[in-house]
Structures are given as C-alpha cells and as structure tokens.
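Shipment paperwork, digital attachment
Item: protein structure file
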Amino acid sequence: MSESMTRDRVGQLLRAYPPAATDPAVFHRAQFDAGLAWVHFPQGLGGLGISRDLQDLVDTELRDAGAPVNPSSHIGIGIGMAAPTILTFGTEEQRSRYLRPLWLGEEIWCQLFSEPGAGSDLAAVATRAVRDGEDWVVNGQKVWTSSAHVARFAILLARTDPDVPKHRGLSYFVVDMTAPGVEVRPLRQITGEAEFNEVFLTDVRVPDTARLGEVGDGWKVANATLSSERVAIGGDQAHRESGMISKVAALWRERPDVRSAAVHDRVMERWVAAEVFRLTGARLRQRLATGAPGFEGAAMKVMFADLAQSISLLELELDPDGALRYDDWALVRPMSVDFLSRGPGYRYLRAKGNSIEGGTSEVLRNVVAERVLGLPGEARVDKDVPWKKVPR
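Attachment content:
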C-alpha cells in the first residue's frame, strides 16, 4: 500500500468518525478496525500488513486532525512487549483474543520475568510450572513488576523442566492476574512511590492454551520480548530538546546566576548527547521498518540509562535548592513514570533505576559485545549443567 492509499484510509476514518464529535473510546475502536493501530500487523489485528514506517505517517495525519491519542503511557507493557510477542508466537485464537483489548487499553498487561534470585541472570528463574492435565500449576515469586496492581494479564517466564540446562527448561505463558493464587504487594522505592510490585504465585492454574511458543522454548520467546522492551525503553520517537534535557536547557536560559564557561561546556555536552540519542532512535525506528528489532535496542537502552542519570545529576548541581525541596513523599502506586512533571530530586532518584530495569546496563553491554561486536563471551560454568544441579 502506497503513502497516498494510506492517507486515503486515514481520511476515510476521520470522515466517518470526526474527532471533535466522537467519543475517544469509539474513535480508537474504529481506528483499530480500520487497520491504523499498528499498520505493520496483519489485517483484522489492527493492521494492514504494510511497512512499519507508514505508522509515522498515520500518527502524524491523526495528530494534525486532532484525533485522540491512545493512552500508551498506561498500556506500554502491553503495546511494547506483549503485543509483538503474541503476534510472533501466539496462535490465531490468542491473537484475536488479546490484541484488540490490549491496544485499546481495555486490558492492562504486566511482565512476570524477574525474581529475587533471577534478575540479570534471567535464565535462572525458579518459578515452577508443572503440567497437570490440560493445565499448568505455577508456584513462585516475581519482583519489580510494573502495573501488576492494575493488570488483567501478565506474560510469564517459568521453569517447566529442571533436568536440563537453565536456558532450555523454560516456557512462556499468559497469566490471568485475577486467577486464584495470584497475590500482588507494593514495593516502595527511594522516590516514595510504589510503582513496582512483587507478585506471589501459589498453585495458580494456567491452561495450556495460554502458552506462547512450544514447551521448552521460553528463552527464545522471552528474548523476543526483551528485544521489544529495550526498543520501547530506548527508541521512542522524540523531538529536539525533549525529555529531561529540556529541564536543564530551561535552567540555563532562565537562570543567569548558574551560568559559567565550565557549566556551558557541560550543558552543551549533555545537549549534544541527547540529540545523538534522539537521532540514533530515529535510525533504529527506520531499521525496524524493514524487520524485527535486533540487538540495537540493547545499545539504545544503555545510552538511555547513562543519559538520564548524567542529565539528572547536572540538573541537581545547577539547582541544589530545588533538589532539596523534594516535592512529594506520598506513597502512591502510579501506572507509569512521569519524569517531567516532578522536581529535580525525583528525577535524580528515579533515574537510578534506569540502569537496572529492562536489563542492567552491565548485562546489556555484554549483549552488545558478544552479539553485535562478536567479541569472546564470558566464561559460563553453568551453561551445560542441569538447572537443578546448579548451586543457589
């Protein structure tokens, strides 16, 4: 489908559902059914089966017409992680069941991957799924789970075979978060919020029809999810001087008292780094238009974490009084992170988590070194040892 045909499809949607006179929920349903939710998905699943790069055209046309914006900040895990995985590994029934309410935000998703003893070494997960007839019985604990307190479904990585090496004994499931045996507890962070949760799974029954991929292929499926996650974290579309660098740039322009030659050099260094990151993200999205996300997302995610932490530290140094006046320590359980509406103290503290969530920067540097640059891998003494025999 050409650009002109895509524009025609957008025009048909806007004429049938004028944004100014249409309820946003109704408009979003019509947008999905018109194939304009994610155009590279197949027809009938929110897409048109066309090039991914035409999504920017669709989004621009809709924005310019005043169309309502899909609340992606509330459904980011579903959009950025669950949906690509379901599309690639799900059955036709799973795609039809999950993708539409996921994109519409009618069902929130969370990610049950990390555990107290399996964070950076994700393949070491100990949560067990044991086959019982047509179901799997799941027991274990997950941690650092965003949106678990409001989620309807979760993507779960669990161990189904402890007798083989850790990477080969995993399977991947969709879990109903309202099922008996699922318990969600808040985890309060250094910012005062409880954005994350820990999730306890006790004899939770998951039907085999909720499995994504083959039994034992969980590591393969999980890696596809992680690639999409890192792209979602590090490759968002942005305009120049957006994000956290906007706060530092505003301080420089509005506060002559903080200016000096040395400070100017540091501000410009961070400004240029932010612009390099933005343009690298644009290149990544162009590469995505030609196929599935690769390991470039790992490099982008490392860049994102380093940039957020260095910019927030610079802002703190430029405005120490503002940082000391921390705006709010109230225990709240937000669905997403909003860096820009809070003060510099919050941004500095919350940025510390950017080098941990979505894969630690240390692990992602290994990914880049080994899988992108082809450098020798680290020694792994448990690589060929059955999981149950590895000391823990």
